[in-house]
Specification:
Layout: H1 7-16, H2 20-32, H3 36-48, H4 56-68, H5 72-84, H6 92-102, H7 107-118, E1 133-138, E2 141-145
Antiparallel strand pairs: 1-2
Length: about 150
């Protein structure tokens, strides 16, 4: 049995062939019907700035819709946008809750939750402490922090 190419692949082929309007229509039409892959693709296009204008707020919105439509990779991407404040206000607690909710069915989200729980971070997602800074040069200023990440990170 031959399976149709994914929406993203079909859109990419249209873009490579120079049919930008057709690619945008294909993905937009599927997104209007609530297709998670299409919603995610629109989010990616808004991050890349091609073939749509770069707009992190719209990307964040589309990733959120895609995740709620059941497209697992978008849930993690949306959580990252929410945690970092990309395209909107940072909301660490909400981001962590998104990952926790996704974790039972998403191995990547589960791994991120495991890593975050092991980190010495506060309720706002910021480190409670940092390793000491080693100054390498004063002008221009250059420094490093050894062991900033754990082996698991």
């Amino acid at each position: 049995m031959v399976t149709p190419a994914s929406l993203s692949i079909r859109a990419r082929r249209l873009l490579e062939a120079g049919d930008t309007a057709e690619a945008i229509e294909l993905v937009s039409d599927a997104a209007r019907r609530g297709d998670g892959e299409a919603l995610n693709e629109l989010g990616l296009w808004h991050v890349y700035g091609q073939p749509l204008q770069r707009d992190l707020a719209r990307a964040r919105l589309f990733f959120g819709h895609a995740g709620r439509a059941g497209y697992k990779p978008a849930t993690t991407t949306y959580a990252v946008f929410v945690a970092l404040g990309a395209g909107g206000e940072p909301r660490w607690k909400e981001a962590f809750e998104l990952l926790e909710a996704a974790a039972p069915d998403d191995a990547m989200a589960a791994r991120q939750v495991e890593l975050l729980r092991a980190m010495d971070i506060g309720g706002d997602g910021r480190p409670q402490s940092l390793p000491p800074e080693e100054v390498l040069a004063r002008s221009p200023v250059a420094a490093r922090r050894s062991r900033l990440f754990s082996p698991a990170e």
